[in-house]
Amino acid sequence: MGITFEVDEEGTLKANISYKDCNKSTFVADTSYWQLSKASDGEPVNNRSFANGSFSGTYVVMTGDDLAIDIDGDIERIFSIKGTYSSDYGSGLTFNMSQRFNIKNALVV
């Protein structure tokens, strides 16, 4: 997760998720949670916190208010995933990944 990208304000973003361990071997998460937060202060956006963001698929969809620019004009977001997995090294192993991105302001003409 090292690519910077930009999405349209109040648009839709599908984040495809794949996991690799320290040996670059693909694994399936035992548990996974996602969060969307403002980069300026770490506050969750649209109640998208780890506590409310459990998922079991290979993607997360953010849309509408998830990608809205709020009154303070903060356009930078952080999409984060954390959870646990099992491998030959043990069970309950943890992972934590984050990706920053910007929201492109939809100018009204």
Structural class: mainly beta
How many whole angstroms does the radius of gyration measure? Answer: 15 Å
Return the string of H and E elements: EEEEEEEE
How many runs of DSSP E, i.e. beta strands?
8
Give the distance, in angstroms, between the N- and C-terminal Cα atoms: 35 Å
Strand sequence of the main sheet, in spatial order?
A: 1-8-7-5
CATH architecture: Sandwich
Mean pLDDT: 87
Q: Unreliable stretches, pLDDT < 50, 5 or more residues?
A: none
- What's the CATH class, please? Mainly Beta
Count of DSSP helices?
0
Helical amount among residues, as a percent range?
under 10%
Q: Please indicate the count of domains.
A: 1
SS strand fraction: over 45%
CATH fold title: Immunoglobulin-like
Shape: elongated
Q: What composes the largest sheet?
A: 4 strands, mixed
